[in-house]
């Protein structure tokens, strides 16, 4: 596995291009939408028709080790969802696994070179907002890039203008029109009562948050906290892709020193299992409207 955080781990345009060209040569599908599946949400890919599946290890240039976190499969799935060509990442690369930010976001630039226009990112997250319930779906309207504050931004290093400009705008990262479509679709699909809209904060992980950290994040205006998504969104926006983000609230963070509750990955996967059908229904009914 590559050492994290060195700017020499940056990839060249030609490397991304080689991966994209290999994929274009191995599938007839020309997806306009890419879906990055979060913990336990890989089932989305199973909904695709006419699937072509590529284990990450088989794709030239793709980050080398298949994703090792339980709940993440580690393959790229091309197919049709509600008649639309899509590509799904079943399993993503996490910074806490030791991948550099450039590797974490490698697939996003490949998607761009495949001709993708819209990226849907999903994740499992802890609820910080007291009015959120376990099982709620939060439409991401903004993010706090905490690793970015600490110098871990995937755009650090040489800027290749073939992807985007040096100083990309992030105030419009989560597409307003797509958010309106999600709200409308959630109403139609009976998910309106548990759809929230809020701010996602990324921490590097892999530790869950301390009580003091949770209180801090609440004060900063974050509604959910997780260990992914933001790097992919930053790189997607840099190359002009439209972004839609969905967080599944899989647990409520602990903010009380007397609480006996403890954050754990099993609870996260259990909740995802319970709500995975709803997330899938929401996304698949959304696709034809994009
Ligand atoms: C929590 O979410 C609710 C519902 O979206 C929102 O009205 C409220 O402002 C949020 N609370 C905080 C403290 O941000």
Automatic annotation (TrEMBL):
Q: Which GO terms describe its cellular component?
A: cytoplasm
Catalytic reactions on record: 2'-deoxyinosine + phosphate = 2-deoxy-alpha-D-ribose 1-phosphate + hypoxanthine; inosine + phosphate = alpha-D-ribose 1-phosphate + hypoxanthine; 2'-deoxyguanosine + phosphate = 2-deoxy-alpha-D-ribose 1-phosphate + guanine; guanosine + phosphate = alpha-D-ribose 1-phosphate + guanine
Where a purine D-ribonucleoside binds, per the record, is at 209, 251
Enzyme Commission number(s) from the entry: 2.4.2.1
> Which parts form a coiled-coil structure per UniProt?
none
- Give any GO molecular function from the UniProt entry: purine-nucleoside phosphorylase activity
Alphabetically ordered keywords of this record: Glycosyltransferase, Purine salvage, Transferase
- NCBIfam families, alphabetized: PNPH, PNPH-PUNA-XAPA, PRK08202.1
Q: Where is the Nucleoside phosphorylase domain?
A: 32-287
- What does the annotation say about its assembly with partners? Homotrimer.
Q: Which family does it belong to?
A: Belongs to the PNP/MTAP phosphorylase family.
- What residues does phosphate bind to? 39, 72, 92-94, 124, 228
Name of this chain's protein: Purine nucleoside phosphorylase
Give the species: Zoarces viviparus
Entry-linked InterPro entries: Nucleoside_phosphorylase_d (IPR000845), Nucleoside_phosphorylase_sf (IPR035994), Pur_Nuc_Pase_Ino/Guo-sp (IPR011270), Purine_phosphorylase (IPR011268), Purine_phosphorylase-2_CS (IPR018099)
Kindly tell me the pathway this chain contributes to: Purine metabolism; purine nucleoside salvage
GO BP field: purine ribonucleoside salvage
Role noted for this protein: The purine nucleoside phosphorylases catalyze the phosphorolytic breakdown of the N-glycosidic bond in the beta-(deoxy)ribonucleoside molecules, with the formation of the corresponding free purine bases and pentose-1-phosphate.
Q: Does the keyword Glycosyltransferase apply?
A: yes
């Amino acid at each position: 596995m590559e050492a994290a955080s060195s700017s020499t781990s940056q990839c060249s345009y030609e490397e991304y291009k080689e991966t994209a060209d290999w994929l274009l040569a191995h599938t007839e599908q020309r997806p306009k939408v890419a879906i990055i599946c979060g913990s336990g949400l890989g089932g989305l890919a199973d909904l695709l028709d006419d699937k072509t599946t590529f284990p990450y290890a088989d794709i030239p240039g793709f980050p080398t080790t298949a994703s090792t976190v339980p709940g993440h499969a580690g393959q790229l799935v091309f197919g049709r969802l509600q008649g639309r060509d899509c590509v799904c990442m079943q399993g993503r690369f996490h910074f806490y696994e030791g991948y550099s930010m450039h590797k974490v976001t490698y697939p996003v630039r490949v998607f761009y070179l495949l001709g993708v226009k819209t990226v849907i990112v999903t994740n499992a997250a802890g609820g910080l907002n007291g009015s959120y319930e376990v099982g709620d779906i939060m439409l991401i309207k903004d993010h706090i890039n905490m690793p970015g504050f600490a110098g871990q931004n995937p755009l650090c290093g040489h800027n290749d203008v073939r992807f985007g400009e040096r100083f990309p705008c992030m105030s419009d990262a989560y597409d307003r029109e797509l958010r309106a479509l999600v709200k409308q679709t959630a109403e139609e699909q009976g998910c309106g009562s548990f759809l929230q809209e809020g701010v996602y904060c990324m921490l590097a992980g892999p530790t869950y948050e301390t009580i003091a950290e949770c209180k801090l994040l609440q004060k900063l205006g974050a509604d959910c906290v997780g260990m992914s998504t933001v790097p992919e969104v930053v790189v997607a926006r840099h190359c002009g892709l439209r972004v839609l983000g969905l967080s599944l609230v899989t647990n409520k963070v602990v903010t009380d020193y007397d609480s006996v509750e403890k954050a754990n990955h099993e609870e996260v996967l259990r909740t995802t299992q319970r709500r995975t059908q709803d997330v899938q229904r929401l996304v698949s009914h959304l696709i034809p409207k994009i």
